Amino acid sequence: MPRPKPIKPGSGQESVWDYPRPPRVEPVHRRVRVIFNGEVIAESHRALRVLETSHPPGIYLPPEDVRAAFLRPSTRSSFCEWKGRAVYHHVVVGDRRADDAAWSYPDPVPAFAAIRDYVTFYPGRVDACFLDDEQVTPQEGGFYGGWITSDLVGPFKGGPGSWGW
Predict the structure, then answer these.
(1) Could you read off the pLDDT tens digit of each residue along the chain, which spans 165 residues?
(2) Who contacts 80 (Cβ-Cβ below 8 Å, separation ≥6)?
(3) Domains detected in the chain
(4) Structure pTM?
């Protein structure tokens, strides 16, 4: 399927088609919160975002801003051509568990050393992720974990037929 035409951003918006390849890491200038089973499992004013062409940003929180007691190691791992090997974490709060809902890079490639041990979450596998008071929309598909907000326009990679974009 050919890539659809990028949507022109409006005032105060950015297009994911203007993001770089290879990706870039930059600070998030908004408060970040992740909620699961009634608990704030992560909250930060020091998060980083990874910007990559055609993707909504992945939001990475410093490990000290994530409540590690709610994370359990997973046997899953994956490899990103840009960042290196990712390890996954289950999120467990009370009687609820979200398998492989978070991941991190314990030993990223040098260009992504800034996100070493930072944790990101799939917005669709936890109850809610927020940037300031805006609840994010999960990126379509089960592979990518981008955070979509009203200030982003696509089309976004991840849905059916977008693998080759």
Answers:
(1) 678 899 999 999 999 999 999 999 999 999 999 999 999 999 999 999 999 999 999 999 999 999 999 999 999 999 999 999 999 999 999 999 999 999 999 999 999 999 999 999 999 999 999 999 999 999 999 889 999 999 999 999 998 889 888
(2) 86, 105
(3) 14-148 (2.170.150.40)
(4) 0.96
